[in-house]
């Protein structure tokens, strides 16, 4: 089955891509994504200067999910800017994930990376792992001010990667903020921030940074991800494309994201565990599910969740 999708006028040869952060820091990792069955190459969130990130252990899978506190290890935006042209030769969209340690950084990086013409820019307002820095997406005023500044310097399609919200009041508060920016897509959700995974044998937290607190991913966050996809799909009446992220382990999980309103899905914890081979497996599984249910494409079932 043809699993290609179009988001903000950009064609993705498959609706599956890596989640920012998963196997996408180095040139080698990005090229491996280019040669894989992934429908796009999403970069690690980039900062002004290169960073080694937080002390290890900082990524640990556990039954049902993963916890990470990577701390934005990345090559710095100049390195990614220099790579984009080459990565585009793989014939799939290149998505530049932009972060920053302060508001001005986002604007500087977005302007510079925009000049390298990635196919899309995903602005990350939701890193949970920088000690002392709250997730920007939980502050609507800062989010709006920052996104308006970034929007002014970005000419390629621009979206925002949001943290999970846990109350309809928060979705309702954020939707008008996002609506005023002129966004081309939403990426939902980043990891569920500041979880704590404990090993009772050693009586220790499983990761080192921030006293063991880190972002949760994988199967355990799928219902939270689906709820966020669905909530924003409804608030924007299906008119703002959504890339769903969270708990995509099988083609069936991806199908659930599509039903809730996602146009495409990103894969984090599963890609970390399985490597880029997961994209062929997920594509085969989703293709079989769509076919069995009589859908002709990912777009065909988008948003069609029925309420009881
Ligand atoms: O690098 C990280 O620690 C990290 C980032 Br920037 C993010 O957006 N989400 C996440 O789970 N980890």
State the helicity in percent bands: 25-40%
Report the strand count. Answer: 16
CATH architecture: Alpha-Beta Barrel
The biggest beta sheet is recorded as: 8 strands, parallel
Note the gap between the termini: 30 Å
CATH H-tier superfamily:
Aldolase class I
Which overall shape is indicated by the principal axes computed on the Cα atoms?
globular
CATH class: Alpha Beta
Could you say how many structural domains there are in total?
A: 1
Characterise this structure.
The model has no long low-confidence stretch (mean pLDDT 98). Helix 1 packs parallel to helix 2 (77-88) and helix 3 (103-115) packs parallel to helix 4. This protein has an 8-stranded parallel sheet. A 4-stranded antiparallel sheet has the order 5-6-14-11, with no helix packed on it. Helix content is 35%, strand content 19%. It has helices spanning 27-35, 77-88, 103-115, 140-153, 168-179, 222-235, 251-260, 269-274, 278-292, 298-301, and strands at residues 5-7, 10-12, 16-18, 41-42, 59-62, 65-68, 94-98, 120-124, 158-162, 185-188, 192-196, 198-199, 204-205, 213-217, 242-245, 264-267. Strand 12 and strand 13 (204-205) form a beta hairpin. It is globular, with a radius of gyration of 18 Å. With 308 residues, it is of the alpha/beta class. It has a single domain, classed as Aldolase class I (TIM Barrel, Alpha-Beta Barrel), CATH 3.20.20.70. The longest helix is centred in the last third of the chain and has 15 residues, at 278-292. The chain is built from 10 helices and 16 strands.
């Amino acid at each position: 089955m043809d699993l290609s999708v179009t988001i903000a006028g950009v064609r993705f040869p498959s609706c599956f891509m890596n989640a920012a952060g998963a196997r996408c820091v180095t040139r080698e990792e990005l090229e491996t994504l280019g040669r894989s069955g992934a429908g796009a190459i999403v970069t690690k969130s980039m900062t002004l200067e290169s960073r080694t990130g937080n002390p290890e252990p900082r990524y640990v899978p556990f039954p049902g999910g993963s916890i990470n506190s990577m701390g934005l290890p990345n090559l710095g935006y100049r390195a990614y800017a220099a790579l984009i042209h080459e990565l585009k030769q793989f014939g799939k969209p290149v998505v530049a994930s932009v972060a920053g340690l302060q508001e001005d950084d986002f604007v500087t990086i977005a302007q510079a990376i925009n000049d390298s013409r990635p196919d899309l820019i995903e602005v990350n307002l939701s890193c949970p792992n920088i000690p002392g820095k709250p997730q920007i997406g939980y502050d609507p005023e800062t989010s709006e001010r920052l996104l308006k500044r970034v929007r002014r310097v970005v000419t390629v399609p621009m979206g925002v990667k949001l943290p999970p919200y846990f109350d309809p009041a928060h979705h309702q508060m954020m939707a008008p903020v996002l609506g005023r920016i002129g966004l081309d897509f939403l990426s939902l959700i980043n990891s569920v921030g500041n979880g704590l995974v404990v090993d009772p044998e050693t009586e220790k937290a499983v990761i080192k940074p921030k006293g063991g607190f880190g972002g949760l991913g994988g199967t355990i966050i799928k219902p939270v991800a689906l709820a966020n996809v669905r909530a924003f799909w409804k608030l924007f009446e299906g008119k703002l494309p959504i890339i769903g992220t969270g708990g995509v382990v099988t083609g069936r999980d991806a199908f659930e994201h599509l039903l809730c309103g996602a146009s495409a899905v990103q894969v984090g914890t599963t890609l970390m565990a399985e490597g880029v081979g997961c994209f062929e497996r997920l594509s085969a599984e989703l293709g079989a599910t769509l076919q069995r249910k009589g859908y002709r494409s990912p777009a065909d079932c988008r948003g069609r969740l029925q309420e009881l």
